[in-house]
Amino acid sequence: MNMPSYDLDSLVYMSTDIVIANLSEDLQHKFTATVTETLYGSLNPGEKLDTLTPFLTFFDPMKDGMRVVLFLDRRPHKYDFFHSDDAKSPFAVAPSGVYLIDEYQHVHTYYQMNNPGPYEAQGYRDFPHRSVSTKEQDLAMPSLDEMRGKIATSLVSVQTVRPLLDKVATRDDIHNLMRLIDTRSTNREDCNLRTAGAITERALFQIRSLNDPELLLRASTLASNWESALSFISPSSEMRLSQAEEKQFTASRVKFLLDTLSDPKKDVSLRTEAVQFFLDIYGFRNKNVNIPSTKIPMDNPWLTSYAIELTSTAKTIFDDDSQNAHLRSLCLQLLPLDQPAISADARQVYARAQTDELRYVIEDEFLKVSDTLFEGLHASGGDAASIVTVETLGGCSWIAPDSIVFRASYHERKGIGDKWRLELEEHPVLTNLRTKQQFVLRHISVVGGWSGGESGQSEFRVDDLTGIPPGKYSLAYEIDHTGKILSNGYSVAVAINETAKGKELSVIPPSKK
């Protein structure tokens, strides 16, 4: 029972009416909301809304005498089988569209804390033990006056894009729609709209409605975690195609991706996204599971007719030293490395590779097949593959724009983990390029990542430079066993300088190392 929690701008966009209301509950546990103040829309104070119970029962607490802000939608909606009667209500409550007003006139938003489970107001818990918000917690929430101001500001902002989102999309709207979904731009303007879930969902729907595969692929390069590969190659239910037409639609979309990947004149971002879609369609590159690559792609029902051509195209790009390194590294993941001829070719590419990224990915992919295959590379990093890179933050990232975020990726030999899993340590290390003095960074701010046993990623900031003298350093990810370094992989060059604000870290461009 996944119940989405929407931000304020999304709730404002989804609402035709926003009101403050008093709730009363009868003996049959049915709610009536009496409007006391209209913040948006045409409802008037004193009006009673007595058909909201099916929606309000998904919120906890929800009881007689409460005062709430309601985000309401009077447009017709389709509901699932279990809640089909809800469509008879003249108003729907938007998902997560209730704010609780406490006795101190402060406002609590609702979130789904546990799935399955209801929306729960901030400060209140139902599981594992029931608890209610304290006075201190209540007073830490925004005041009702503050929330009125935020809603008023959001209404002004959302009105600037509502006409675009509510009309039938045309190709003339593409520029503005693309801007609304662009979460990767470094631009910090309109971040409230570009990170509003309901607004970006609608903008993406508008783009999809034009049924142009290149537009969809372009959109996917801009939006984080947007268009799934399967939805790209599968027709929507609204198209109402026959089985034969669906098959033809899928074949044309797969052919489009293959043509895009094959065309060196296409923008590299589109070609990269095409490869990523193929990898997603295969579904075999789960970070924590090794599946023999000989099963791929011949057993995939969507790609069978293109398997040979796709493998050939991926190999051609991977072998071409003039191609983009990241594109080549993705193409490698389409190749069956457990076939001797393919792995021998990859070793030749590895020997002449000019970029750390490509060398790391080859090591990583060989480790996914076997320790023995990896050992044949004679990698300089030792018993594991690792690399540190610099993350590119979008302008609307929650992380401060002047922060530097590093990503450490690693993959250990399986034999190492089997012997010493609990005794291994992984950590970033600074090495002074002149003196070779090393500093293990044990106090970092981790902002993301994952761990899958012998492999994983860690995204982190270096906030504490205490005890580290100014100078130029390499930042690598070390893996050690009881003090013995097993691996010290590919690094990024950084500088530490004394400034009026104290020590500051910066990245040294590759051309100035």
List the helices and strands and how they pair.
Blueprint: H1 8-14, E1 17-25, E2 31-40, E3 48-49, H2 53-56, E4 59-60, E5 67-73, E6 92-101, E7 107-112, E8 119-121, H3 135-140, H4 144-159, H5 162-166, H6 174-181, H7 191-194, H8 197-209, H9 213-222, H10 229-233, H11 243-262, H12 268-282, H13 307-319, H14 325-332, H15 340-352, H16 356-369, H17 371-375, E9 384-390, E10 406-412, H18 414-420, E11 424-432, E12 438-440, E13 445-451, E14 455-461, E15 471-481, E16 484-488, E17 492-499, E18 502-507
Parallel strand pairs: 4-8
Antiparallel strand pairs: 1-2, 1-5, 2-3, 5-6, 6-7, 7-8, 9-10, 10-14, 11-12, 11-15, 13-14, 15-16, 15-17, 17-18
Helix pairs in contact: 1-4, 6-8, 9-12, 11-12, 12-14, 13-14, 14-16, 15-16
CATH fold description of the largest domain: OB fold (Dihydrolipoamide Acetyltransferase, E2P)
Helix content: 25-40%
Strand content: 15-25%
Provide a count of the helices: 18
Strand order of the largest sheet: 3-2-1-5-6-7-8-4
Structural class: alpha+beta
Give the tally of structural domains: 4
Assign the CATH architecture of the largest domain.
Beta Barrel
Mean pLDDT: 88
Q: Which word captures the global form?
A: globular
- From the N-terminal CA to the C-terminal CA, the straight-line distance is 52 Å
Sheet of most strands: 8 strands, mixed
Number of strands: 18
What does this structure look like?
- The chain starts with 7 loop residues before the first helix and ends in a 6-residue tail after the last strand.
- Helix content is 34%, strand content 23%.
- An eight-stranded mixed sheet has the order 3-2-1-5-6-7-8-4.
- The chain has four domains: 8-158, OB fold (Dihydrolipoamide Acetyltransferase, E2P) (Beta Barrel); 169-227, no CATH class; 243-379, no CATH class; 386-394 and 401-512, Immunoglobulin-like, CATH 2.60.40.
- The longest helix is centred in the middle third of the chain and has 20 residues, at 243-262.
- The chain has helices at residues 8-14, 53-56, 135-140, 144-159, 162-166, 174-181, 191-194, 197-209, 213-222, 229-233, 243-262, 268-282, 307-319, 325-332, 340-352, 356-369, 371-375, 414-420, and strands spanning 17-25, 31-40, 48-49, 59-60, 67-73, 92-101, 107-112, 119-121, 384-390, 406-412, 424-432, 438-440, 445-451, 455-461, 471-481, 484-488, 492-499, 502-507.
- It is an alpha+beta fold and 513 residues long.
- It has 18 helices and 18 strands.
- Residues 284-299 have low confidence and may be disordered.
